[in-house]
Every structure is written in C-alpha cells, then in structure tokens.
Amino acid sequence: xxxxxxxxxKGRLNxxxxxxxxxxxxxxxVNWGRRLYASVDxxxxxxxxxxxxxxxxxxxxxTVDVGITGLDLILEADLDVEWVLDxxxxxxxxxxxxxxxxxxxxxxxxxxxSKVATSFPNLAWQFFASRDKNVEIVRISGAAEIxxxxxxxxxxxxxxxxxxxxxxNRMVExxxxxxxxxxxxxxxxxxxxxxxxxxxxxxxIESVLLAEKKKYLMADxxxxxxxxxxxxxxxxxxxxxMNLAGRDDMVAIHVVIDKSEVYDAVNALKAMGAKGILTLPxxxxxx
Length: 287
Ligand code: AMP
Description:
The chain is α/β, with parallel strands linked by helices. It is built from 9 helices and 15 strands.
C-alpha cells in the first residue's frame, strides 16, 4: 500500500526533514527542484512537497497519510491529526512580544482593546481569552515584528527562537504561549489502515536521531586493562571484545558511546596503552 507523505517544500523545516528521510534510508530524487511529488527508490512511498502551513490540513483531509511539520502549525490549525514522533529540530516558542518603549513586563500590562498582530490568530485568541484579556486580533501572514512600528498593532504574537529578530526590532518577549518543534503526525484513519507502515517510518527516523548522538569506537587494548575498560563503558551492552590473531597480550574492543564522551574516552584509552583507536559515525541505531 502506497504511503503518502507531506514534507515542507521550503523554509526552515525543509532541509532537515529531507535529511532525516534520506538518513532513514529513503532515497529520493535529489533534483526535485520545483516538483510537487517525488517517489522513493525501492519503496512504496510517495512524497509531496507542500507549504508547512498546509500540511495539517492535507493530513486531516487524508490527502496524505503522514507528514512532517511544526507543532505550532498543527495546534493553530486545530484539526484532528495523530501525533507520531517528536523530531528534535525546528525548536521555537510562540510568544507575546511588545515594543521595548511601552515598558510592558507581563500580559497584565497590555491595555484592554490592544491590537495583536499575528499569523497564529487561533492560538493567540485562546491565550488572551484564557487570561480574560479583551484584545483585537489582527491577522497577518508574516513579519509581525514590524507591525507595531507602522501602527498596525500594539503587540505581537510570533515565533521566537534565538530572540535576535525581536532585539533587532527593539521588542521584548513578555510571555510564552507554547513551545514547538518539528513533529511527525498522521491521519487517524491512516493509522488504522497503514499503521504498520507509519510506525516503521517513525522508528526508522527515530533510529537516525538516536544514531546521530552516538559514535562507534574501536581500539586494541592491553588484555590486562580489559576489566577497567569494561567499567569505563557500562552503556548499552558494554564493549564487544574480540581476540587479535596471534596475540594474547591485546584484544580489540568495539563500543557505542555518546558523542559527548568521545573526547575523554579516547584520551583515557590512549593513556592506558590502547592502540589503533578509531571513532566512526553510526547511520542508524535500533536498541
Ligand atoms: P517556514 O515558515 O516554512 O519557514 O516554517 C516555519 C516553521 O518553522 C514554523 O511553523 C515553526 O514550526 C518552525 N520554526 C522554528 N524556528 C522558527 C523561528 N525562529 N521562526 C519561525 N519559525 C520557526
């Protein structure tokens, strides 16, 4: 059964989404250019490139079975789709921000009836309603940060990651509405009919995310140092130990370690007389 998937065609989420699919083993035509569809080599898979904002609707309507987009866009669309996997990129927060000059420190300081410019009218409306604050929502499609300077709005609700755009425009963040990241979501009906295919896709991507945090380390160590070295690498299943042909004094170890441990591990092994130390990237890791 063909699995139809939507991926952002441009913007912040496009590149990393494609990279994750490729690393998962889904090879597609690299020069897809302005095409709407790509098929995947050797798999019953069809990829549709559309705007990140449109993906929740295409998934909800069943035009595609599954998709990658921002959690912010899913919540704003307020359509019934099923969460499948967090992707740990596209991190940002939807925040309320005001011009520095107004001196607002919290939402309570925003006067009743203020104009709020945003491309997230639903989430903004819900947020202000939950704070019993009457505001006028001004729907825009982008560049919210300039609207207070041109008199279109008093404050804004917009996505922030580093905060540099706000600082450049002399605005301050005064509250956070939600935190977002890229996610995999699916059509609830497709979860019933193509659940296995969707979960296989999710676990493939998950194995890439896990592998990216790890390295494969190999070294030839003095046999007598083995007990101590085994204690150094208690993670996963401990090191795999192999004999070296014609040598009793040395064995080879292979071990999967966190990237963050590589620097210390290599130095420690070297200090213990290890030779031929190698670290290698891992493509996928299924624990
Ligand atoms: P696009 O408008 O196609 O670049 O995609 C925007 C999506 O990227 C948003 O809906 C968020 O999910 C995500 N994103 C991550 N960081 C930011 C940011 N600083 N500003 C805007 N969008 C961001």
